[in-house]
Each structure stands twice: as C-alpha cells, then as structure tokens.
User: Fold this.
Amino acid sequence: MNRRDFLKKMAFTSAAVAAVSLFPGVLFADEQHDQDNELTWKKSPCRFCGVGCGLLIGTLQGKAVAVKGDPESPVNKGLCCVKGYHSVQALYGEDRLQKAMVRKNGTLVEVPIDEALDLVATKLGETIAKSGKNSVSIYGSGQWAIPDGYVASKLFKGCIGTNNVEANARLCMSSAVTGFISTFGLDEPMGCYEDIDHADTFVLWGNNMAEMHPVLFSRILDRRQKNPDVKIIDLATRMTRTSSMANHTFLFYPNTDIAIANAICYEIIRTNSFDKNFIEDHIAFKKGKVNIGYGLEDHFSFSDEAKAVNFNDYKKFLEDYTPEKVEKITGVKAADIRYLASLYSGKKRNVVSFWCMGVNQHTRGTWMNNVIYNIHLLVGKISQPGNGPFSLTGQPSACGTVREVGTLTHKLPHGVVTNKKDRKLAAKIWQVPVENIPDKPTYHTVEMFRALDRGDIKFMWIQVTNPMVTMPNLKRYRDAAKKEDRFIVVSDVYPTPTTDIADVILPSAMWIEREGMFGNSERRTQHWDQLLSPPGEAISDGWQIIEVAQRLGYKQQFYYKKEKYIEQIWKEYTQFHDDPKHRMASYEQLKKFPGVMWPYVEGKETTWRYNSKYDPAASPQKKFDFYGKPDHRAWIWLRPYESPPESPNNEYPLWLCTGRVIEHWHSGSMTRRIPVLHRAVPEAYMEMHPQDAKSRGIRNGETVQVKSRRGSIKIKVVLNGRGAPVEGQVFVPFFDENLLINELTIDAFCPISKQPDYKKCAVQVERV
Assistant:
C-alpha cells in the first residue's frame, strides 16, 4: 500500500468511526467503496489554537462526520493534533444551546430569539440613555470570526461612540502586541512558519509546544530528524513533554527569564559576537521607565517613555547581567547561559525563538518580548528565512480578529483611536461622524471587569468566551456580574459558568455552521463556507450584533444582507488595508486558497516583513527597513529584571503556575464535550514535586486543598505525571469549570500591555 492509499484508508476509517459514534443510523459499506463519493469534503481552518491548521471536513446527511488534515495547507501539510481530528464532535454535545433564554423572576426561561434580541437592544439603549455611552461594553474573543469582531467594533466604537470593546486576547497575547509596537512600531509579526524549514536552532521560551502547538512542534521534530545538527532548547520552569524531546532543558526560577535574556545579550557583546554593521545601520537604543508597578489597584494608569541612549549605555546596563550574577538570580548555570549565547551568535546557525503564554502572561511581559527581540537584533538574525523571533498565539483568530481588526479598547482596524488620521478613515468607512469615535482608550479587560464591579459599567455583552472561568482573581469579577443593577448578555454554544450569570443567553452558531474567516499567528487569513445548518434558532455572533444594531436604528451602517454579509463585511473591512504595498487578499481569493498571508501584494504573499527582498513596503535602497518607526530603525530597549508582585513566603510557600494540556482547550466548554478527549482527561489535577508531597504527607491521587490570598479549591494530586514541577512549585490546568483555579490567581498585569500574570502566585497546599 502506498502512502496516499494508506492516508485515504485512515481517513475513511476515521470517518466511519466518527459517523457511528455521532449518529448510529449512518452506516458505511465495506471499505472497497469509493469513500470520496460517500462524503462531501470541504476546507476549513481548525476551530482551536492559533496555529491555524487547515482541515478537510467530511459531511454526510447534514452532519459533520469526519476530519482530516488538508494536504494543501502550508500550515500543517495534512497533519492535525488530537483536538483537530476530533473537532467536529464539539458540535454535538447533548446540552447544546438551541434557544434564546431570558432571566425572568430570577429564572432563565426560553423565549423566541427575536424577543431576546429586542430585549438586548432595549436594555442597551436604556443604559446609554440613563448612564451614558461608557456604561455599556462588549467583551469578545480571539475566537470571534473576523467579520464578527469587525461589526462589534463598528457598532460600539463607530455608532454608539464608546471604546469599551475588549477581547480575551488581552489575557493571552497583548504583551506580544506591545512588544512588537515598542520595538518595531507596528504590530505585525515579521516571520512565518516556513522559518521552521530553514532554522538550525529553536529556543523555546517558557513554551510547552509539544502540547500547546503540537503540529508546529512536529514540524520542528521533522526538521531535526532530517538535519541532526538542529538543536531544540527548552527554557522552562517545569519539565514537560517538550522537555523530553529537547536537546537541552534549562530550568529557571519563575519570573527570572528576563535576567537570562539580558545575560545572553551581555555575553554576545562580551565576546564581540554582535553584528556591528547591522546595529549601525538599523538599530536605535532606548531606555524606558523602571519600577513601573503591577496594576493591582483600580484605575491604575501608566505611560512609558523612550529616552534615547547609545550602545555604550546599553553595554554598561548589561554589566548587572553577567552569567555568574544571573546564575544566582535564575538558577541557570553560567556555562549554560554562555552556551545559549553561542547558539544565537553562531555565524553558521539560523535561530528561531518561539514563545507563548510563558512570556506574555507576565507582569513584565512587554519587557520580556523586547529583550528577546534585543537578542535577535544584536546578532542581525531577524526577518530572514530561519532567523527570527516568533510569538505564537493561543486562539484561532487572536491575530486576525483582535490584532488586525482592532477589538481592543485602544485599537481600530489597522490603526489606533488616538491617531486622528486613523479615526477619520474609520469614520469614512463606517459612515459615522468622526466625532463619534472617542480619541482615548477606556478600559482594558481587567479594568473593564473592575468597572463592572464598581458600577461604572452596567451593561456587558460577552461573546465567544467564558470569563467566569478564565478571569484572574475570579471571585471578585463573578460577584460583580451578579450585582442587581448589572445586565449581562452572553452569546455561546453551551451552558457555562458565564451563561449561569447571564440575564440573556443567545444561542450561537459554531464555526462551520456559518461562513467566516480566521487569522492565524503567521498573518494567514483563512476562509470557510457554511457547511451545516445551526441547531434550533442559533445564529452567528456577528449576525446577532447586526440584528441589535439595526434595532438601535443604525440601519444605514448595518445594511448587510444575511445571505451575503460575510462577503460584504470583508470587502468593507479591506478598505482599511487599501495600500498598494499592504493589501489583503480578496474575498474570491480567500475562497479559492487554503489561506493567504497578508500583506498580499500583486498576487504574492509577504513572507518576511522589513526585508526588502520579500516585503514590498520596505525600501529597496537597503536590505532591512524597519519602517514602523519614524527613524526606520528597530529599537533595542534597556529592560531590567524586577521581582514579581507576589512571591512565596512561610504562609504561602509554593509557586502556582496555570496552563493547558493537549487534550483540552481553554476553559474546556467544547473539548470536554468531545467524548474521547473528556475520557482522556476527565478532570483537572495538580502536579507536585514528590519531595514537596512527602514533606506534607501527601500521596499520589489524594485530594488536597490549594489556597492563595484570594481563594482556595480542593483538587487531586498527581506525582510524576506528564509534567514535573521542580521543588517549590505546583501546576494546575484551567480547563475544568468544576475546579476554578483562577479563584486563586492574581490580577496583577503588565502595566504596558495590561496582560495578567497567570503563571506566578503564591499558594499553600494541605491534605484534606
């Protein structure tokens, strides 16, 4: 049997098993039948993480029954992870929301969806009339399809006139945004996944790629198998499945990664391994504020500064980060730091740095992004095939719908609210007076929920996310949502702890039950057609917003026809990118291809930004042009190590880190309804070092109480499991709504990005 026939056979077998498990009335004949005649296969991006794998989804008799990786997709090249292969089963949970619900006399009751939409529009209008436009808000997600986030921003920022628009991507990748902007002037990742095919060294900064981005990690392993000199370096605070496959794992104390990165820079300069010409031609040095706080107080405000300094100032700054000094801070040996520096600076080695939540969910997340860029800029290994820093995202459209469309309080589609030119363009396209669009941001996510608690916000519409599981310091914000004079609308596909606190629940169509687009981590926009009919009265999140907007009287701005609104919105949205050197693919092109990277200029994807060989926006007069900054230079920042807002002590002696496992995604509202994934990991657990357990008299599988200054939960302990914390640390995944670990986490955040730190807080653990 050849490889193609084998793959077809596996796809057929997978389809048959899925079909029988989903609805037993569907039977397949023997495998000699031409399975392509049995199923209709159509392309779609995966519903889960930000990798953006291309899928082929098999449908039969109005049901999605099979999934295989799309071999035409340049992202995954036919491969999927366990979540992708089982993704369509998330459509068919027994408790799927199919009817709208309204809280009457304290009880949620089913109502026709038109009645629910009428109520949402009425309450929205009444709240604005009584308490002002900044008393209403919408909180969305990196799971919003691009058209959905676009109409949300258009309604609230353009028509209502409030910048109270946020998305949960604030919690997972806003430090990457502010890192890009502060170093390069634009929030536009410069590399692409093809970097993997050209790199010799992969440095993973606090990133368990084997579980969080398994398809990309498989591409890295394939690269190493074909090129034995390839090195995978795992920088981490605990041993993971990634560690087991790495060439080297260097464990560091929580929060000290910035000291390691600065020490690498010190060693590159000490050994004269930096690229002098690149620095002279393309780099400026900047110093910002220090001791900038942690955002723990309400109304916390912060503005950074950029004071010009020179190379010698930077060199002097780094004297505090010799490998010997940093070994004492971080626990990483000085010799290992020197080895890392040699990998980055090696003349014949291409280096890609990957990171995700370990760097971004950090009270100095922006700084940490800056210092990783510093390393690459010092050695000139950036914006080239196989050379570059690459921040990965956790949601399917965190880049497309949040960063590109601009569903954060300070953003507009391809612009910012503080820029008059950007506001004028938005007002023209949206057909609203420019005065409608406020020129100042309002509330980032944590402060938005604090405003809900205080009563400054009285109406919140939550779509495609589950904040009553995912917010840090959760109890405060859950209690806030329950206050009597707050009105909460939730659009979702399943009951969750967030729908539990809703006054109105709107049933949403899932991704392939409507047409849409996602934008992945490498700037690749991916379109899919509607493949199925949604159940009951469920409709897309975007059409819900359009219905409410029309009820509010914005019919001129929301003129879309239901059967063509995705195409209409895309063509409207791409006017924001109508630059000869910075365009998006057309609607017709997106329908044709399994994803197109932007900028898409004259029929060609831009693969490496700021490199004149690949980027039409870069000046052809020089090899690199960092045109996001007025001086056309990338900025190396002097960013110091600073201690975390909370550290273990005698009362709370252990570090708590939260995260994910490969089987589940985010708060688990979809993956826990996929039988095979739920059976694999049916509940959350706490990983603990055996010595910490022994000293407390705790055995494997026993239930313990984990307590922080903010809350406590009871949970089972796993010793020597898939992950292995070092002494003094514990780890808990956050997918289990029955074990709300975020009641314990702290709502401190990076003052620049406003992204909370889910990776470090102090806890105590005791036997129950």
User: Anything to note?
Assistant: The first helix runs from residue 3 to 22.
